[in-house]
Amino acid sequence: MGSLFRSEEMTLCQLFLQSEAAYACVSELGELGLVQFRDLNPDVNAFQRKFVNEVRRCDEMERKLRYLEKEIKKDGIPMLDTGESPEAPQPREMIDLEATFEKLENELREVNQNAEALKRNFLELTELKHILRKTQVFFDESVPTIYKSTSHSSKYRRYLQMADNQNEDEQAQLLGEEGVRASQPGQNLKLGFVAGVILREKLPAFERMLWRACRGNVFLRQAMIESPLEDPTNGDQVYKSVFIIFFQGDQLKSRVKKICEGFRATLYPCPEAPADRREMAMGVMTRIEDLNTVLGQTQDHRHRVLVAAAKNLKNWFVKVRKIKAIYHTLNLFNLDVTQKCLIAECWVPLLDIETIQLALRRGTERSGSSVPPILNRMQTFENPPTYNRTNKFTKAFQALIDAYGVANYREMNPAPYTIITFPFLFAIMFGDLGHGAIMALFGLWMIRKEKGLAAQKTDNEIWNIFFGGRYIIFLMGVFSMYTGMIYNDIFSKSLNIFGSHWHLSYNKSTVMDNKELQLNPGTSDYEGTPYPFGMDPIWQIAGANKIIFHNAYKMKISIIFGVIHMTFGVIMSWHNHTYFRNRLSLVYEFIPQLLFLLLLFSYMVLLMFIKWNRYAATNPMPYSESCAPSILITFIDMVLFNKPKDPPEGCKVYMFSGQGFFQSLFVLLAICCIPVMLLGKPIKIMQARKLANEEVQPITGATSDAEVGGVSNGSASHGGGGDQHDEEEISEIFIHQGIHTIEYVLGSVSHTASYLRLWALSLAHAQLADVLWTMVLSTGLKQEGWLGGIMLTIVFAFWAILTIGILVLMEGLSAFLHTLRLHWVEFQSKFYMGQGYAFQPFAFDAIIENGSASSGEAD
């Protein structure tokens, strides 16, 4: 069979490359992506390998590129991404790239340092401007300076005696009535002050600390700066306030400055004289205007540098990552004794050897080497990696299988069968024409727009999961539409396309007044032929027994499809045993397992079809509907060898003649299969080892199983799935076989019951849809008039949100997970080992994609 049903045939090759051609040849193999190299220096430290200096140079270039990328993103400059992948540069081009990145980094760092210094200077000038403005407001506030005398003095006017008359008036105004009274007549009062800015959120604590530390002997005035200021270190917008503190004496001055320093408040010089303040303010405004001009020119230069870098940044990243990947790969190689030839070992697909040789030849021509590379196939007993070729359609289904476990080498691949069985089992639980159409349209939209959506490369994990599984979503929606037509369900309602095959023999008043009326299929109420496709729409209005009918129908089809699915899984194991020529497993595992499943559970399915075919309301006794036996009770009596209960009068015990004999025979044969599964294979292995000991002992004198080995029935290369018991103790073989037998026998019962989740989730989905229709949308449909139109619009929007959010998304996710479990546990456990390791070729596409994803997460 082709690689779709089994993994590719792999071979281990030895590669000889000339040192001067090695770089170009590895570059060509990276573009091809079909070679997985092995590490031939596992004991050598990463820092002691031949090309460690080149790798370090690449790391340094990547660091510089990440710095450029961060600055470009900070400015919001779009980076040009053509989607093309440039070839890996030659080793001599690394020097040019390093020089370019070094120049860009130094230039950008210098521009950033200058811009930060200018911004810090601009911030200081802006704060000083606000201080001069606010302090002038403080000094200009006028306060009455005429006060009444004490009890022993008459009214008088007292002025503060200071050196400067203007300062005298200002300080008198700022002190106010209480401050003036506090000073004795004739006493000179000289006040000092400091001014600065502080973060607005620190101001309350700052004020409390001043009051406590200075014992209330300072006077604080503050005003908020309305516009936010830019912090030059990180670019954040901060809100600050201007303050001015008045005090008397050098001791208070020192204490105030220490408190300001502790709260990281910035102090600025503020002249005492109003004329000096005005002159300083004019100078500050002039300097701010000059700084704005210089800052604008600096930002323009920085922007031009970043725009030029953004045009090539993506290509630079690709080039550097390719160079780094090549040298990482070359570090896996060995040098021969002459130091002129590199030796590598690699896994390659057998069908692609010619393509790989052509790539090596191209690399040799590019490097100008005259010695062609040599690719030799090697013989090995090591298990090769598993390589399943996929395309954009099968990739998602293969990912579901690999999430359970990577297949053993050349083991049967369940992915091709999962393409059909997965959406079908999902649809059994999710069957609704309307909900399936929503899902299918969403999947179809992603498929039609896949090129544009794939080019966006978003970091949203949920969206990436949806987009990666677009073909699964589309198929699940299409299959759900099909099962929805079978169930005749569209948003919990039915379609009457062909006309119901049931007829009412009652008049309207009788039907409306009597809720217990029933239609008898044995009379003319039923035409005698079923609805052409799917359920008859009459069941939609059968409120009393609709769920009873659907319950029995969906329960039976769940068991039927479950047994078919498990039987198919057991048959898949036959393909594995025959391919690996594993005769012991074929005879003592596959045959008894298949018989056990067919004799018990397939027989139960057969009874369902016999019951559907033989019993009907129109048939005479003993095959009328009242004589139909319960399949579950019949199966329990069969397994427990119970005598069936007496049937109603006129009915037969069994559905067909000889049923009791065949049931007893089937159970006895199924029981006999258990010891065959349990003991057959270990006993045959033990006999083969004993025979080998008897034949080899006279020649070699070997006495133990470990010395002699065993007889292997699997002759397939690399042991991929054949007998692997040669070095295993016979006691462990018995234990393992016992565990597998118990697991299969009990699992057959539990797995069959597990498929009832198809029935349970299908009923739950239908009932939820019915509840939403009855309790939400129908309330809007019952309103009349213009008010009813408004009400219907609101109710419909609410119903649509609930339908998509609960029934499509949440119920869809639940059905998806249950379907995944049915495939992983019930289906794949019958034949799939999943203990291999994936083929991870040296491919530039994967390396660049992983590098982009990791850099995106770091951001």
Automatic annotation (TrEMBL):
List this protein's GO terms for biological process: vacuolar acidification
Which segments carry the region annotation Disordered?
A: 704-724
Among the entry's GO cellular component annotations, what is one? plasma membrane
Q: Please give the Gene Ontology molecular function terms for this protein.
A: ATPase binding; proton-transporting ATPase activity, rotational mechanism
Swiss-Prot/TrEMBL keywords: Coiled coil, Hydrogen ion transport, Ion transport, Membrane, Transmembrane, Transmembrane helix, Transport
Q: Where in the cell is it found?
A: Membrane
Which parts of the chain are coiled coil?
51-128
Top-rank lineage group of the source organism: Eukaryota
**Membrane topology qualifier:** Multi-pass membrane protein
Mark the transmembrane ranges.
Answer: 419-447, 467-487, 557-575, 590-610, 661-680, 758-780, 786-810
Matches recorded under Pfam families: V_ATPase_I (PF01496)
Q: What does this protein do?
A: Essential component of the vacuolar proton pump (V-ATPase), a multimeric enzyme that catalyzes the translocation of protons across the membranes. Required for assembly and activity of the V-ATPase.
Q: Which family does it belong to?
A: Belongs to the V-ATPase 116 kDa subunit family.
Q: What is this protein called?
A: V-type proton ATPase subunit a
In its UniProt entry, the species of origin is given as Drosophila lebanonensis
Q: Which gene encodes it?
A: LOC115620184
